[in-house]
Amino acid sequence: MKVLIVGFERWGSYSTNPSQYVAEKLDGKKIAGAKIKGVVLPVNFKTLPKTLHHAIKKYRPDILITLGLAFRNMDKITLETVAKRKIKPFFPDNYGRWPNGTNKPRLYDVIGKEKGPFFRKSKLPLKNIISKLKKANIPLSVSQKQEGTCASRFFILGNILWKKKN
Fold first, then answer.
1. The model's pTM
2. Burial class (CB in 10 A: 0-12, 13-18, 19+), 152
3. Partners of 158 in the beta sheet?
4. Which of 44, 69, 116, 166 has the maximal Cβ count within 10 Å?
């Protein structure tokens, strides 16, 4: 089994991004029989979906796990249970742009005018993951209702659209 773990470069007012560190440290490892490929993507709303699709085509993973930088609850791991098509980033991308080419923070529809689902649920075995993290005394929260505020959700929906077209 091949697992692609995606992290992001530093973003906003943060000098580092833990998702980058995790993706780099896990790259090339073998865990429970799964070969891990870790990649770090730039925080660029314009090119993010294409950059992700290139990585998917190149590595052809069985499982895709995206990591992100939380701006709340930074003392724990937050598992995202859904990817919603609307996001509201805290910061522009690292090139000063907001999604959809606008120039101000607001709620954005990632898919735009195209038809598509309002959200998609994760297909990972989240109950099992939660149970194991709790048993290991790893602090965590589970996000089910957040509107979606980060780049990782931006490209999760972009990836869903790409899969529908290809």
1. 0.77
2. buried
3. none
4. 69
